[in-house]
Structure formats: structure tokens, C-alpha cells
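Please check these two lines:
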Amino acid sequence: MPLVSRSSIENIRHQLNIYDVISPHVTLKRSGKNFSGLSPFTSEKTPSFFVLPEKNLFKCFSSGLAGDQFRFVELTEKLSFNEAVETIANRYNFKLEYEGGAVPNRESRSLRKEILEIHDLAADYFHQSFKEENSEAQSIREYWTKARNFPMELAGEFKIGYSPTNQQSFLESLLKKGFTQDSLEKCGLFFLNSGKVNPARCKYRFRGRLTVPIRDYQGQVIAFCGRQTDLTPTEDPSHKAKYINSPQTPIFTKGNIVFGLDRARLHIDKEKSFILVEGQLDAVRCWQHGFKTAVAPQGTSITEEQLRLLKRYSDRIDCVLDGDEAGQKAAIRLLPLTLKAGLEARFVPLAPGEDPDTLLASGGSEDFVRKRESALSAMKFAVSALLPEENPSPQEKTAALEKIFEMISQIDSEAARQAYLQEAGELLHLLDMNDRAVYNAFVQFDRRKKGFRQRREDSAPKPEGQEKYAGRLTTSEYELLLVVFHNQGIIQNIAEVIDSEWIDSKSIHGKLLSRILAEHKEDLWEGIEKIDLLFETEEEKNTAYSLMAQDLAELGFGDPVDIANRCLKSLAEKYARNKSRQIEAEIASLPTPSDDFPRLHGELVQLRKIKNNPPILSVSAPSNSGV
């Protein structure tokens, strides 16, 4: 793949604010001159993710990750640097130039980009097949409009499609467009044997099924869901499955995707609460009736990652799950996950055999609104599900309370814990004697749980590499890097007086410092904007960007020249001291007389001069010269 030119990269970096790149994916709130939000990389309740628009950097304290707008896209979309630049350019309409005037062709494009393009073409192909004037298409349209009672306009809006029983022409068209064997094998649309692709012998995953495109939160088609119809071939191994989904691919992991989020997030500011339903067509039905924040888990049950995605946009979620036994079990599994994610969940009761699709299709939006108005709070739902019988015994209440304690223990906020415990106690009628009874019982439960967990952790072997060096905040190399990153005007002065042997090149800060100063000495330094060219590891990237993101005023950082001089003095003295010890030991082992003694004695004299007269910078710190 040809490299994007540095001029194009710098053009994007200077014109595109990092806030605009991150804000669609993380809910950010103003924090002084910066912004804060929940980490997109870890599960957390308290914001530890910060965006610094003036520096065009982000810093995530919970994960240790940091970087610029390109690195954010690299990390969140699992791309290479070059791919991240191309993705941002396409998304924000920047024109790219490539090194040496090269033009990227399909053969040099990334596997991920190829698969995305194949899915775009497949969505168009399936939708066109849905609209064709032939018997299969007519049958599938009748299923859509009559059996499912959906309007044709909605099919166009969601790009509903049909996967024909014979798709040889589609695969042939992909081969003519030059897609690689690797992308065709890994896109998940076909069953291919290794070796040359033969459209005549290929099997197609969704044939004879209604297709629903699955999009990521940016609206890109990354997978499909196929609904069984009368046209699904009986010899198909998955014929009996009502729904089948794309397998995991380089662009699709079902546990990380929420169906409909690309649309719902655009309406959440007005509606405030997501509507969580079980299936894609349930969500489509909700959208048809004006409930535009409806979403569905992509998979058999919702995951913590999917709830974290929803949490980025709203703290509230109405769970409208099927009224059958399976739907109730799914709701019970979902409840502790919502508490752990910090979501305020309500559960909308449906009658046995009822689901959002049938409810809206038969009763319309008014019935749906009434159902939502009767939604149960998390604790009411938990008590009704765990104690379905009237007049439960004290033993049954105690058992239910233990299960509720287990759920509440997932919550970080002490205030939220107490509120949930108060409600649970009232619902179970356990507070008639002492309004602290339930809370005290929970404290005892939590202590037992923590004690068991601590004993288990203490007895477990420590993971290999746990004591790995992670950077010491007081090293001279660390402080010199801060000086270098925030005062570029004095880097050359430091490079001219420091000896590379003084730097501890085994530490991460020493490695970076040595590399930067070497660039200066060789007159190859192109500025802090191009520092990404020097990185060799992920650790180096995180370390460098984290230092750039530091606020020196908050650190109590003084005059950078004074700090640089103090660091130079410390490094020089440390080097001279250690080197002198080595030479003195070597002298002590020499035979008498020895021709090496004058040379070694002369080296000791030079080391004493370095120790007693370390280099001093005479420059003044330039103003506004840092990142």
C-alpha cells in the first residue's frame, strides 16, 4: 500500500480538530479548556478520558492510551496508521496525495477496506434483487408487505434485500473488479474452498433469505442478518434456522455491534432513552411507528461492550423484550449488566407470546406507549422475576435478596447502591422493623464477597511480566522529555551538550530521548508534528503522547531551562560516578607496573571534570514553543 504523503497528513492534522473526530464516539463534557468522558477503551463509571483540543491530543488514564486524531481512529477501528489517515480523509472529505505520486490500487488496499467495499456492493446487490421483476423477488416482496405488514418505503430506507438462490453473477462481478481471494474468503458472504474461486461451485450464505444490513455506529455496512423464507433451499445446512447472521470477520464481531445505533444515536438528545428490543425487525418496526431510538443486540444476548456503546449516548434504557419464557430469561441476564454499566434500566412487560413487532403491528403506537408507561424499574422487575409467587416465605425472600445483592454489588456509586437497596427492601417488605436492615445485610454480604475474592487473588500466581517497568516519574530522562516536548526551541541546545552515554537507553523515556536528540545531531529533526515517524512500539506511542498531553502548570513545572540544566547535571554526575567506579576497579586489577595506568588515570581526570563542571544551557526558554 503506498504511503500517504506527509504534507497530506499535516494538512489534516492542522485543519481537523480532534474533538470533531472523537465526539461522535464519546459523549464529551466541558472540563475547563478541555473535555472529559467515559473511556471508549475500558468499562468505567467515572470519566478518565480527556480530549485536549488545543494540543489536538487525547489521554485515557484508565487504559494508559494517548495520541492524536489518527491514533484514536487506529485504536478504535483497529487500523494501521496509513489506513487511519485514509479513513479520516474519506470521512471528512480531505484530498490525499501519496509518496512518489503513487495511486493506491485494489491489490494494495487493506483487507478491511476490501471487505467493507464488498459489503457495500452486496447491500446494493441484495436490495436490487429485492426490487427485481421476477417470481422470487415478487414472493419476497409479498412476504415483506403482507406476511410482515411492512411498507415498501421502509425497505428502501433500511436497504432491505433478498439473497437470490443463484448468485453466480454477483461473485463473477466481484472477481472482475479485482477483489483478492483473501477478501472473498474472509468477508463471510460465501463458503469458499481454498484455491481458485469458482463462482459455479461456490455456496452462498444467505441464499433464499430476506437480508437486513447490519451497520456500525458510523453507518457502514459490516454484516447481514438473513431471515428464513419459503424460498430458503431445504438442502441448505442452516435451513431450519429462522435467522442467521454473518460470521465473525475482520470488520464484524457481533458482541461489539448494536443494530440501529447509527440511526438511534442521532435522536437520543430528544428522546433521552434507548428502546432495547430483541431482533432487528423489532427495531425496524419501532422505527416505522416513530420510535427512533430503538436498537437491538447483534447476537443472542446483549454484552457489556454493547451496553458501553449505548452508555456513550444516554444513561437510560427501556428494555422491551419478548413476553415468552426466553424473553424473561434474557431480561434477568440483562439486569445485572445494566447495573454494572451504570444504566438506568426500565423493563416493559409484554404478555406471553407478545413481542414489539406484533404489538406495534396490531395495536399501533398507542398500545406501545401505554406499555412503556407501565414499565417496571430495575428493582421492581428483579423482585417480580425472583419472587413470582404471592406471599413468599422468609427463606424465599432471603434467597431473592441475596441475588439482588449480587446485582447491586456491581454498582460503583455508593449513592446509587443505597437507592437500589432502599427500593428492594421496600418491595420485599423487609424495612418494617429497621430501615437500615437491608443496607446492613448488604454490607455483610459485600464483605464476604470481597474477602473471598481477595483470598482467591492472593492465592493465584501473579501474571508473567507484572513487574515490568512502567516509567518512573522522577527520572531525569522523563523530565528532559517533558522539556523537549513542550519547548522545542531548546532541543538543539540540549543535543549539542549532552553525551548519549549519559542517557539510560534501557528505559522507555531514555530510548525516546536518545532517538530525538540523535535526530537533532544529524540535522534530521522535522519537528514534533512528525514524531510518529520515530515510534517503534505501542509503548513508545503511548508514552510520548501522554507526555505531550501533560499540563506543565498542573505539574508545578518550573522554568524549562532550569529544569534542563538540573537534569543535565544529574545525568552527568550519575554517569561520571558509575564510570569512575568501573575504571577504579579496573585500575585495582592491573599488574604493577602497567602501560594502561596513564590512560585510565586520564579518563578519571576527565570524568571528575564532567562531574564538577556539568554542561549548562545559556539560552532562555522560548515562549509558546511546545505542543
